[in-house]
Amino acid sequence: MRPKLPVLRRRHAGASGRAAVRGVVLIEVMVALLIFLLGILGFIGLQTSLTRVQSEADLRANAAYLSNEVIGRMWSDIGHLSGYAGTDSCTATGCIEWRTKMQQVLPGGTASIAVDAATGNVSIKLGWTLPGGITHQYETQSNISAKSAT
Fold first, then answer.
1. Whole-number mean pLDDT of the chain?
2. What's the CA gap between 56 and 111, in Å, rounded?
3. What whole-number distance in Å separates Cα of residue 121 and Cα of residue 147?
4. Which of 2, 51, 116, 135 has its CA 20 to 30 A from that of 143?
5. Beta strands across the sheet bearing 121-129
6. What is the pLDDT of residue 147?
7. CA–CA separation, 123 and 105 (whole Å)
């Protein structure tokens, strides 16, 4: 007769084993959601700063364009060059139109134009204020004289 061997029985995970597995899965899901949400918040912050920087660059480009535009107006109205000089206002018709446009394009826009009639040197300073209260300034210089036009 053969010796009797012990019967091996499988243990079944009870209710407490299943709950532990479910708890680990729940923690893994919560950690994954936390990592995902941090990534989304980082992306939103990056998008916000990119939008701000793009707006500032656009205003700087507009200031450069406006400076070049007023220099072009001065070249076309070289006989009335001294009428473009001024900090808050000017007397030349082209300058008045330009200042109106500048104030519409640049938020809180200010312009200061200095003209040296003897040499034809022109200095243009444009300033503007961003919604956060940060002020910026763009400055350029040129020479506008009848001698350099020939």
1. 86
2. 18
3. 12
4. 135
5. 110-116, 121-129, 135-143
6. 61
7. 20
Percent of the chain surpassing pLDDT 70: 84
Nearest Cα residue to 75 out of 150, 138, 130, 3: 150
Q: Within 10 Å of residue 61's Cβ, how many Cβ atoms? A: 11
Q: How far apart are CA 79 and CA 150, in angstroms?
A: 15
* Alpha-carbon torsion (45, 48, 52, 55), positive or negative: positive
In whole angstroms, what is the distance from residue 18 CA to residue 39 CA? 32
pLDDT tens, residue by residue, 3-19: 777 766 665 555 556 66
Give the C-alpha separation, 56 to 54, whole Å.
5
Cα–Cα distance measured from residue 24 to residue 131, given in angstroms and rounded to the nearest whole number: 49
User: Could you tell me the two tokens for 13?
Assistant: 């995970």
Query: Residue 25 corresponds to which tokens in the numbers above?
Result: 């899965």
